Amino acid sequence: MGLGAVGLMLLGIDWMTRGLKTAAGPSFMQLLQRWAGTPLQGIFIGSISTLAVQSSAAITVTIVGFANANILSLSSAAFVIYGSNLGSSLSAWLVAVVGGSFKMDGLALPILGMAVILKMLSKQSRSKGIGEALTGVALLFLGLSYLKTSFDAVFINVDFAYLTSLGVSGMLLSLLAGIALTVVMQSSLAVVALVVTAVSTGSVPLEIGAAVVIGSNVGTTSTALLATLSATATAKRVASLHVLFNVLTAIVAMLMLKPLLWGIQGIALFVFHDTQPQFILALFHTAFNALGVVLMYPLTPPLIRWLETRFKSPSYQAPFVLDQSSLAIPSLALKTMSMEGMRAGQLIARQALMMAQQRKLDGQLLEDNKQILQNLHLYIAKLAQQGMSAKEAGLLNQLAQNQLRLSMALQQLPGLARHINQDPTAFELEIPYWQALSDAPLPPDPVALRNAYRQFVHDRQKKKQLIVQDVLYERKGQESGGDDLLRLAETRRFNQQMTKALLAFIKLQASFDKQAKQAKATAPDRVDETDPETETQVE
After folding, report:
1. Are residues 306 and 361 in the same domain?
2. Is there a single domain that holds both residue 157 and residue 66?
């Protein structure tokens, strides 16, 4: 029964988290951008977000992704994570209150019935998400009910108080048990629920339960660390701050364990007139996380300055922003992919410029660019396996199409390099356009990009007419003129694919920025299958 109860709890937490994330959608990203500007706002929004989603691990991984995508600064991300830890401690109150005041299986079944009906009959993704979240809540309550019954039946004769008699060794063993359980379950809420239930039934002494809860706080860092194994320097800095916060908080809480419990028992008796162990443990969990926030508040600026000197990117290229942390929310992953797509397009333009100026193709740079596009392709494939709305699936399809356009452009570079071997001045016409793309900020200005492309098309048309006239008046041979026209056609295809892809990525970025600012301005110009050159000629 106990094993099945833990399974129900883990399943319920998983459903609850996924459902709430689906219900929140892109608005969660906008909320973070809008309310994480100051340290106090970051702590507040981190606490509220974790309470809403009931998963500090999910919020932490999401915040790592946001910092990775430059949606949040390192300082803002740090304080949101501190707030997330505080919010996770408030979840213990849910277990303590519901477990102590209600018959949970009687409460769970009506919730489950209503939730399944809502999920099955709703057509909107947000309503379905709410239904899935409520299903998770019901399963969590059922699991807690069975868990309490199993503790009463199985552990009544187990002497966990023996750990208390071991002194410091017993406390450290309990701490390690909390870390191990959280790493295995990948849910601090499940571990806290387990401990609070055990303490409420009298199976586990309060001090041992408190040490396990401290360990569960440290164990939550495993999720963030796993998410940053192949991440950028920024993501690793955020994860490091998370680890430092939890480890420092755990050290202080262990050193002050008995005084904290004694003080909290006095506060509970004075304020709540209640000294039930589950409430004491919930208050202890909140108190030592709040103490951690107070300790880390003044230490964060110097820590950030120190971390800025660590995890430097080994490559000359800008940090690669796609990693597992960005998959937490599809809208975030789409935004990071559009950013990486723009960077990949700019790097291709930069390589073309270097080829024209240095009169040779850099083979290593070509391989690096191929790897960037391959990573983008693999990331698109991973995101395609995630649950997402129809709108997000449409945007993902557009991203895949434009990633292929960049791949087509990159594949044309070796062919273009042949012309530079035959004629060192072969790309004098293209150099100004490639230079404009290489020097443009990210994201590039779409108006400036279109104007630069139109100027290139205008110059290309004039060059084409000159070649025809040179052949006509025999200033150039037919074969030589044919080679020149072939080169113009090849560079036209190269620039066309690269420009279409960049404009599409810019459009997607602009739509995210517009949502974040809640502006009602007209959407950017539509990028479709028409040839940018044809549009210019029509104009």
Report:
1. no
2. yes
Phi-psi region of 476 (alpha: psi -120 to 50; beta: other; left: phi over 0): beta
Please name which of 17, 12, 22 lies closest in space to residue 124, comparing C-alpha atoms.
22
Residues 6 or more apart whose Cβ sits within 8 Å of residue 198:
151, 155, 204, 209
Q: What is the pLDDT of residues 149-185, one digit of tens each?
A: 765 555 545 556 666 667 778 888 888 888 888 877 7
Q: Give the distance, in angstroms, between the CA of residue 229 and the centroid of all CA atoms in the same chain.
A: 14
pLDDT of residue 530: 40
Looking at residue 186, its pLDDT comes to 66
pLDDT of residue 228: 60
Do 412 and 499 belong to one domain?
yes
Instruction: For residue 65, name the pLDDT band (cuts at 50, 70, 90).
Output: low
For residue 320, what is the DSSP state? P
Q: Tokens 């969590």: give the residue.
A: 140
On whether residue 536 sits in a domain, the answer given is no
CA neighbor of 362 nearest in space, from 413, 419, 423, 415: 413
Query: Is residue 317 assigned to a domain?
Result: no
Residue where a domain stops, chosen among 281, 310, 339: 310
CA nearest neighbour of 506 among 520, 526, 486? 526
Cα 242 from Cα 306, distance rounded (Å):
15
Tell which wins on pLDDT, 105 or 125. 125
* Per-residue pLDDT tens digits for 3-47: 887 788 778 777 776 776 666 655 665 666 666 678 888 888 888
Q: Give me the chain's average pLDDT, please.
A: 76
Residue 436 contacts residue 450 (beta carbons within 8 Å):
no
Domain membership of residue 319 (yes or no) is no
Query: Do 255 and 354 reside in the same domain of the chain?
Result: no
Alpha carbons 435 and 425: distance in angstroms, whole number: 16
Residue 278 domain flag: yes
Q: Could you give the CA distance from residue 309 to residue 294 in angstroms, rounded to a whole number? A: 25
Q: Which residues contact 42 (CB under 8 A, 6 or more apart)?
A: 35, 36, 76, 77, 78, 79, 80, 82, 83
Q: How many domains does the chain have?
A: 2
**Count of CB atoms situated within 10 Å of the CB of 27:** 12
Taking the alpha carbons at both ends of the chain, their separation in whole angstroms is 74
Question: CA angle at residue 516 from 514 to 518, to 5 degrees?
Answer: 65
- Amino acid (1-letter code) at residue 313: S
Are residues 376 and 232 part of one domain? no
pTM over 0.90: no
**What domain range includes position 486?**
329-521
- Let me know whether 53 and 173 are in one domain: yes
In terms of Cα–Cα distance, which of 323, 340, 319 is closest to 502?
Answer: 340
The pLDDT, as a whole number, for residue 533 is: 41
Residue 248 one-letter amino acid: L
From 277, 310, 343, the end of a domain falls on 310
Can you count the helices (H) and strands (E) in the chain? Answer: 22, 0
User: Are 175 and 34 members of one domain?
Assistant: yes
Same domain, 347 and 213: no
Q: How far apart are CA 305 and CA 39, in angstroms?
A: 16
> Is pLDDT above 50 for 252?
yes
